[in-house]
Design goal:
Layout (H helix, E strand, L loop, with lengths): L34 E11 L4 E10 L3 E5 L9 E6 L5 E9 L3 E6 L1
Length: 106
């Protein structure tokens, strides 16, 4: 049983605080934080022949996190239009999961 396993404690480290413990996501790697957003996004590729709708979960001037039902068809580079914006801009995928992508605006 895992609860019966005793682990040694380094007494010197008991009172230490992690450098990024106050941040909500200690593994954050972005240079600029993102503001929460819930807007629709349209991705276009193949010269406008393909389109996918998604929801922007958070965004900043450099990129966004977008959720979809399925992202298997999304190419690495595309154009994106976000609800409330008056422009369509090129973007590239920086990371992907099963239902979300992180994009950087170009």
């Amino acid at each position: 049983m895992m609860s019966d396993v005793k682990r040694p404690v380094d007494e010197r480290r008991v009172g230490e605080k992690l450098a990024d413990a106050d941040r909500p996501f200690p593994s954050e790697r972005r240079a600029a934080g993102r503001e929460g957003a819930t807007r629709h996004a349209r991705l276009f590729w193949n010269h406008g022949g393909c389109m996918l709708l998604g929801v922007v979960l958070d965004q900043n001037a450099h990129g966004a996190r977008i959720r979809f039902g399925d992202i298997c068809a999304v190419p690495d580079a595309f154009y994106i239009e976000i609800e409330g914006s008056d422009r369509v801009r090129p973007a590239v995928i920086r990371w992907r999961s099963l239902t979300e992508i992180g994009v950087a605006f170009e």
